[in-house]
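Hey, can you fold this one?
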Amino acid sequence: MSNDDLPLDRQLRQGILFARERVYHYGQPTPLERLILPGDEPGPEVWVKREDLSPVNAYKWRGACNRMALLTAAERAQGVVAASAGNHAQGVALAARQLSIRARIHMPRSTPRVKQDAVRHHGGEWVTIVLSGDSYDEAYTSARREADDTGTIYIHAYDDLQVMAGQGTMADEVIMSGHGPFDTTFLQIGGGGLAAAASAWWKTFWPDMAIVGVEAEGQASMQAALAAGEPVTLDQVDIFCDGTAVRRAGDLPFAICRDTLDRVETVSNAEVSTAIRVLWESLRCIAEPSGALGLAAVLKHRAALDGQRVLIVVTGANVDFRQIGLIAQTQGNASRISRTLRIRLTETRGSMLGLLGRCLPGLNVVDFQYGKNDAVDAWPIFTVSADDPAALDTLPARLAEHGYEWEPLESADDVQFRAIPLRGDLLHQPAFFRLDFYERPGALLDFLQSRVRDQASFCYFNYRQSGERIGRALIGFDFAHTAERDAFVAGMPRHGEGFRSCRPVEPAVLTRLTGRT
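Sure. Predicted structure:
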């Protein structure tokens, strides 16, 4: 019986055995490390397969190198074509250079420069990047068209048996590590190639281990395929976890996963961001969002997994540096929960400090947005957090007790994009300050109560906690008379206890904010 006559799962397992001999010409096995979960709550014993420490900082080198090592001499001479948004491209580039194969890799025009540079670094003169379309799907279509027109071999990122077999060497290393067996593994899914290969291999040796596929909300193509009984194409996908943002699960991976996965579940972008922070704080590992999906699921089920030995895979660390800020913003404070509220005040001197003093003590203000746009009512927006959920649960009662009208805000566009309205025609004698203060609980309120008190009315506030030791806020005050304003500005110390600097903004900034000269 030829290999092609074997059932698909047996072909895959045989392919993994043969891939052992090929892939280690291009890279070495990655470590399996223990991760200590933060906090004192019950939880599992977690082991992490560090694919972020591979030659291309992601597991994709395994499949690309295995597939390209099998090309015939004629196929190598003709070159290959691939499509990728990042990690697979680097794996193809690595193999292309070491095997002296010309590779044309189609990438979306939106691909960050850092990922393009990484492909060129690994592939050198053997790789040509073709920027095609604005999404992976458009780049994929363009690459397949080129392969069809030229007769060139297309190296698929996941829907190829030999690519899947190469990815399966990661699972083999876990078996050979001596740290198993494990009770449960949480394994991220994009197109499904890694999940299919790893689950097929692990079920062979550890049949009692539960294997849970994890997808991000808004890109659950495998979950949709399992529900439909066949791969289906999602109308759109969320791309926060860009490494797994696949609209349609692969046909071959689906055929394996439907028999080897115990279940598939989803996690939110916020849960992924929390997992990225835990990986950084525990292992000093900066995972890309898709690389942290497995840990996000573990954290989600932490209490239920207490006493278990759990395996996860950090599949990659090719995160665009600029995205780290978005991740931190999405995640906020890892150990805290938060709530965003819009609260009604009367536009009178002291009303803002009254609210802060009466209702927000003990809470951490992580975001504060306000601009005067009504002569009677003020609607400042606060995002507050607390280590203890009960502290936030009692906030509505405190607001009601003091007669404040409020409304919750969740994912509001104006809040997210910091669209802070300010009507300059409602101001009399404004003064704006740039405040840099030392970040600690209550520091901002201490400054306002000690330095401002009832001397001025707020007309503007723009502050967001960044995680730095220094907090930065742009604050506007309004006064009835010029002399009152000038006296306040002159009396404001430029630095002092609890704050590093407080200085008036330049006149040009004041003009841009208020429209007044």
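Residues 66 and 166 are 5 Å apart (CA to CA). Let me know if you want another pass with a different chain boundary.
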